[in-house]
Write a structure and sequence with these properties.
Number of strands: 0
Strand content: under 5%
Radius of gyration: 16 Å
Shape: globular
Number of helices: 6
Largest sheet: none
Number of domains: 1
Helix content: 55-70%
Structural class: mainly alpha
Order of helices and strands: HHHHHH
Low-confidence stretches: 9-14
Distance between the termini: 13 Å
Mean pLDDT: 86
Length: 117
Amino acid sequence: MVAWVPNESTAISTYSSHRLLDARSLAMHAVIARKIERDPQLLEIARRNVERWSSARRSHVPTWLEEWRQLLSQPWQNVAAIITDPGENAARLRQSSPFAGILTHRERWQIHAAFRA
């Protein structure tokens, strides 16, 4: 099993729980990207989630939801590049990820376990 371990020159206290959550989210999305690469039909789960969330909001559709709708209409390579990007904008988008339902319970558990300090 892979686990997050700080290097010796870095004290654990310098890593906020937020940074750990961002790293875990990035790891989850890397696994999601790998699964979708093997089975492109899984991308439909994310598209359906976005549509369901949009239809549940009768008046105002949040900016992040529209961003996901636009991103998911692009070729898979563009989507994969964004969801696995360590940058700030991608981290922001991952906070409202429509990829729920792609990872199995076991896959999620393994990723969570890997990021326990």
